[in-house]
Write a structure and sequence with these properties.
The protein is mostly helical and 175 residues long. The protein has 2 domains: 100 residues, Rna Polymerase Sigma Factor, Chain: A (Orthogonal Bundle); 73 residues, Winged helix-like DNA-binding domain superfamily/Winged helix DNA-binding domain (Arc Repressor Mutant, subunit A). Helix 1 crosses helix 2, helix 3 packs across helix 4 and helix 8 packs across helix 9. The chain is elongated.
């Protein structure tokens, strides 16, 4: 996390006017993208993201190390997503039986992107999540371990499994 981001966190903790808004503007898109990648239901993902921001802004004064903000924010969001998935498990099963969320209609279909999304959907949730945190969100292995509450070795093994399975899927699609 950059020094500028850390300073923004400290400014929020000190109650500086406008700092919370700037923090949300800086991290909202990234957090929402993470939530939507984990939850195929965009409305539920957006709700979880909003709730995560409320929790994060309320809990921000208790954050001791501003440099850990990114991992802490993703952990807060993950908790909200898991809680939402537990409470809406029946509805999610109904939706998943209908297939994956529809992709935006475009004039040119990106088949490689479709293959990648299908490959990600076939991964176990633990493997998909660590892959998204490290590769799509750019978290370090240590930050991903903190977000998921697992040891660093578990992150490495899940990431290896996810990459292997995704590679195998992509090879099958192109043979």
């Amino acid at each position: 996390m950059s020094a500028q981001d850390q300073l923004l966190v400290v400014r929020c903790q000190l109650g500086e006017p406008g700092a919370q808004r700037a923090l949300v503007e800086r991290w909202y898109v990234e957090l929402r993208s993470y939530a939507r990648a984990l939850n195929q239901d965009e409305a539920a993902a957006d709700d979880a993201c909003q709730d995560a921001w409320i929790d994060a802004l309320r809990g921000l004064p208790k954050l001791r190390d501003p440099s850990s903000f990114r991992a802490w924010l993703f952990r807060v969001a993950r908790r909200r997503l898991v809680d939402g998935q537990r409470s809406g498990a029946r509805e999610a099963r109904k939706r998943s039986s209908l297939g994956h969320a529809a992709l935006p209609v475009e004039s040119a279909v990106d088949f490689e992107q479709l293959d990648l999304e299908r490959g990600l959907a076939q991964l176990q949730p633990n493997e998909r999540e660590v892959l998204l945190l490290v590769h799509a969100r750019g978290l370090t292995y240590a930050e991903a371990a903190e977000v998921l509450g697992v040891p660093l070795g578990t992150i490495r093994s899940r990431l290896h499994r996810a990459r292997t399975q995704l590679h195998t899927h992509m090879q099958r699609q192109h043979t």
